[in-house]
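Objective 1.3, modelling of assemblies. Example input:
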Amino acid sequence: MTALTHILSKAKLLVTDNEHAHSHVEAKPYSNPYYVGVGLGLVLLAAFVIMGRGLGASGAVSSVVTVGVNAVAPEHAQSNEYYSAYIGDSSVSPLKDWLVFEVLGVIFGGFLSGMLAGRVKSGVEKGPRVKTRTRFLFAFIGGTLMGFGAKLARGCTSGQALTGGALLGLGSWAFMLAVFAGGYALAYFMRRQWT
Amino acid sequence: MNAPFYKFDLFGFDVSLIIAFVIGIGFGFALERGGFGSARILAAQFYFTNMRVLKVMFTAIVTAMIGVFYLSYIGYLDLSLIYISDTYIIPQVVGGFILGMGFIIGGYCPGTSFVAFSTGKKDAIVFILGVTFGVFIFAELYPFIEDFYYSTNMGRVTLPDFFGLSYGMVVFLVILMALGAFAAAEWGERVMAKKGESK
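Predicted structure (tokens):
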């Protein structure tokens, strides 16, 4: 028993030491949102000028899902019009896709920015009143709705709101208003998770 | 006309993938700088305590919009070669509403969840699995919802087309609207901060 407490106190010491060692690389505050917005807008403009298309994110998930389903049940995938559009004539893998590479860049860019600001840290994002298990459950449910909604709307916050918004697409602006409406409609019921 | 470069065959498909990766880095970097790797910050938008989402998004939209308008105005960028998705108004509004609900329940959108994942947020991994599952459900149900998916097609219609205004006028109005939204956001944050203090 004493041995155990000894080990525990040692572990505790290690943790505090660890925290101490990390304290000098304290996370920097986030940047001015207007500057970030200009930066993000210029990235989007670069995509328009160089590629003739905007940004995206959910499309990459479609490619991955298609590859997964096609690997497990190829006949099923090829008979479904949604998957078969991604599979194409199967001369090129659905993963050799613009959005897939863009999303790999997003992951790397996010990591780079986080590292430079001391913000890469393992953890769970939630309010203090909710358990991690509950948060995970909601993250999964929310993600499922997000994936379904993004496919139905032909794009997510990146592909529709940001890209289509800058190009003044009618559907994209209607979509954007609907996103805010959906969020605000449920915000009251979700407050325990966040505040 | 010189741009978009890709449409004028300045480089091929393989090079476009490298460009995708580089543009993605800029995208991810900006999202992380904006605080979008944190679900609490994203969710705060819906409680009026932190309006960063609105500020960053609208500033980005306005910046890119002005850039596209100017570059096409001077004849450098051929707007007709830029991909704008067709408007299917009802499925897009319904999809947007579902997505908005997913946003406040799950705490992220697809792009921000990748940034949150790369900066160590475990809930983002669960969220990404959820998105994957949601896309799977959509694809499996696709034969049954295909008719709805293609309903209310309005073609490649923009706000200037729809309202019968000139491109420049709509750009101007969107800038005005954004400035109004920023003023409201700053004011709202101050009010909520005071409310928080008095509690």
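The first strand of chain B starts at residue 87 and ends at 88.
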